[in-house]
């Protein structure tokens, strides 16, 4: 969760219509209509806000490399006839995500780049997103987006089983999930396959191995499954607010078959070049945005920490941290503060549902680990019965407060009691000890094995699984002396 200006929380309704994110058959255009003036204007207006929503654009050698590859693949689309027609950004986000918007703006997160294993896979992902733009998928879905804005649609994700599909459920969810990962349209399966096919076409025309689309989708599917195991979820589908690549596993074989149908048996991968160029890339959470370590969230800049309940997992977004579990869901965020905790809690409740004012039965004052705090709960009727909405706020300074907004089935607010009680300030030494993880590219030596290299991974759990998924290795695949591989270590 980045420490952001509240003024930056601008409306996303206009932006939502422009985004073409995700990561057949249908009519696949043989040549794309060039970028129009209106599309260029739309993209230029959305671009700064989008960067803000997704952690900002990175600079330096890693970003320059992604830009180079992205422009090379984007010109294959026919949307623009020169590399300068496109803006390619590497985003400082720990989420596996990539997207593009009309006007020639293409994006990928550093986390997704770290999952890739060669340059062709990077080109495949960016080509897939450009394919959405070339096929004008966002325009096709614009009418739907106008009827059901992205944040409203995302509300159903949080409300889920707890709130059903009622209007109230969507409004509650909307207020609780205004994080950065909500800004992409979910495309239909046919549109995803169409974008895959277009991306494969661009790979061919650029001279890359067309199989890269299938292999990067396979890596993403394996990462989804690993995340589910690590987080204790029952399924391997990444929550929609955390990724815009729905169901990659089902698209792998289709993508590989499409690549085979091209008749191209070779093509460039540039594996070693790619690995050398991404060496040192930040992996996982950036401490400036706070970090999730197991069930604990620590923000060294804001000097705070809290612990999620047992059995829950967290996703750190640009604007908020979401906490998810079977017995409830919550968000940790901030709002304007005027040195009055009671009015702060009331204002958070007021923002939950614009159509129906929600008020707590009462607001209680307390102290949590030395922090002044206030909380209240409101019982609300929903499509599937009743739910409890709880706001728990903490004062850190006369002009700064933070809060949890939690939604649970009626009578089960206690599921979050331990988390509410865990909020605390951290000292400067604790903050200084938060060190980022980075990708370290190493060359396999004569005595190295999967197990020995995996032990160097900066994780206390699932080291071998993490190493294999990170390097696109199957469960039985070994290593060769001289081969370059990625490990994740603590930076300096």
From TrEMBL:
Q: Where is the LysM domain?
A: 440-487
What InterPro entries does the annotation carry?
A: LysM, LysM_dom_sf, Mito/Outer_Membr_Metalloprot, Peptidase_M48
Concerning Pfam families, the annotation shows: LysM (PF01476), Peptidase_M48 (PF01435)
* Gene3D superfamilies to which the protein is assigned, alphabetical: LysM domain, Metalloproteases ('zincins'), catalytic domain
Q: Which domain of life is it from?
A: Bacteria
Q: Which UniProt keywords apply?
A: Hydrolase, Metal-binding, Metalloprotease, Protease, Signal, Zinc
Q: One GO molecular function term? A: metalloendopeptidase activity
Task: Report if keyword Hydrolase is assigned.
Answer: yes
Q: Which GO terms describe its cellular component?
A: membrane
The residues forming the signal peptide are 1-20
Annotated transmembrane regions = none
Q: For this chain's UniProt record, which GO biological process terms are given?
A: proteolysis involved in protein catabolic process
What cofactor is this protein dependent on?
Zn(2+)
State what protein this is by name.
M48 family metalloprotease
